[in-house]
Design a protein that fits this description.
Chain lengths: ~300, ~300
């Protein structure tokens, strides 16, 4: 679904945040791990089953509060095909629960390879006349270092299937400056990527005025958010780096327009691991995650009013 | 295994080429497809089984000729978890056959996410004391747009496990110029990435003088290859874009040093689909692939003598 739909979901819940689903073994409540180990032994299948149960529980708890979830593919890939089966099930479950699903996989390649990635995460593959969509997420993160050849297969699917992408523009990490902050001619490097996103936005501007070719800009760069908000009025932002990485509610306010629209802020650990911070045994992980999500919503609400 | 091992395998076979494993439904010989459809129906499982049989057959035919294979993850990802199971089996089979395996997945992320990608493709994951390595490739392609934060988790595994990476420097596609050829300060953008690779090469230079932090530079840019070969004497090159994309044996000669070392050239379709070009029914796809691989070796041999 398009950025219009994401914005609608945000407005409906008055909550511009997305819950990152980045499971790691140490985040899983012991009762889930114990059950999965008992069933499958100490295997990738057991861990994948634990990730699936944990993430589905988070989705159940968070669906009334957040408009979107963002599964991080890497954590599933490291479990091999068992991990990917869990990821498929988690995406389907989140969509069932009416959440917008942003697949965070930062793919980027050229030609038919980029087409395969786009088909994998936003589209479908044809198997002798039968169409099969392994993930069918609403949106995907894309790395544009290879230029428009690498991005177009994704934007074509945005047009055909009413989806969106988030192009990496200015990432939240410290060393992003090594590449993204270099001056390339008259522009900073990350502006080059932002301009590519604009160029690829033809026929992809939604009814709310935002493009389905959106951008990732880290919460750790509030000044960049402020400048980019002013310079790119049609660009929707995904803002990672809130919480553990140092971004605050005060910082992310600059990502939003005057109506409190145009951006969504990600938090992962602070929500997933709220049960650990509370010092519980983890059986209440869903309730704790929900509390943390409401707290984040309220924190951002101090600075951003969604009209 | 390290770039030293790759170079040894190249020298032993006097063949600086890698066979890309980029399966698509239309490349698979009909007899394989028919058997897999009969067994599994028109499902992703059937197509994954067909990819696995096809790629293993190619590996059998090519192992005496080429030193390395390069599976392209995208084509397996589009089949969901069934595709990833096939990819696991193909990597294991290629390693058994003593081939160097370069996983072409162009991953790039930050922090613990980059660690998860590195663990997935070059390392292992710990499941309550039991170590599990889903792919355990010898090398992986990496996108460095996020800076050294995104690359270091991979280079750490290079050190710990004697592996290598290929950082995207100058890709073979036309639109690579939109980002990679911009002038950033005193350097072209792709040189910035090459310099990051050099910076991360500490303790990673092999006995043959080449770094385990290697680079991707397209065959479609012979002048870039020539300049880079002179400027980066310790940088090993993976050269895609040969054949279908327009790169020739004459073009790729500039990737090699005076001993005919320091680079490996990729071909995918010309080898995988040799049976189609020959107009056969596909039952001889292995023999045809072997012929095409020998032809490529000989074509490059006209320009490059490996000492």
């Amino acid at each position: 679904m398009s950025i219009d739909v994401l914005q609608e979901k945000i407005c409906k819940r008055k909550n511009p945040t997305v819950a990152g689903l980045d499971p790691k073994p140490e985040y899983i409540p012991p009762h889930i791990l114990a059950r999965c180990y008992a069933q499958y032994g100490k295997t990738p299948k057991a861990m994948a089953a634990a990730y699936e149960e944990f993430c589905k529980g988070l989705i159940d708890a968070l669906a009334p509060i957040v408009p979107a979830v963002k599964p991080q593919a890497a954590y599933f890939e490291v479990l091999g095909h068992d991990g990917m089966a869990a990821l498929e099930n988690i995406v389907a479950y989140a969509k069932q629960k009416n959440l917008y699903v942003i697949m965070d996989c930062k793919r980027g390649d050229i030609g038919t390879t980029a087409e395969a990635y786009a088909a994998a995460y936003l589209g479908s593959v044809d198997i002798d006349g039968t169409s099969y969509a392994p993930y069918d997420a609403d949106s995907v993160t894309v790395n544009g270092y290879l230029g428009t050849d690498g991005i177009k297969p994704f934007t074509q699917l945005c047009k055909q299937r009413d989806k969106s992408i988030f192009l990496l523009v200015k990432t939240s990490n410290k060393s992003s400056m090594e590449v993204q902050d270099l001056v390339a001619g008259d522009r900073l490097m990350y502006r080059v990527l932002a301009d590519l996103a604009v160029r690829l936005s033809t026929d992809l501007i939604g009814q709310n005025g935002y493009s389905n070719v959106a951008a990732v800009i880290g919460a750790t760069h509030p000044q960049v958010l402020e400048t980019m908000r002013a310079k790119y009025p049609q660009m929707f932002f995904l803002v990672p780096g809130y919480g553990a990485q140092g971004g605050t509610a005060k910082d992310v306010q600059y990502a939003f327009d005057r109506l409190g629209r145009g951006a969504i802020v990600n938090a992962s650990r602070s929500i997933m691991c709220a049960w650990q911070k509370a010092g519980t045994d983890g059986t209440d992980y869903g309730a704790r995650a929900a509390e943390a999500a409401v707290k984040m919503k309220n924190d951002i609400g101090l600075y951003v009013r969604i009209l």
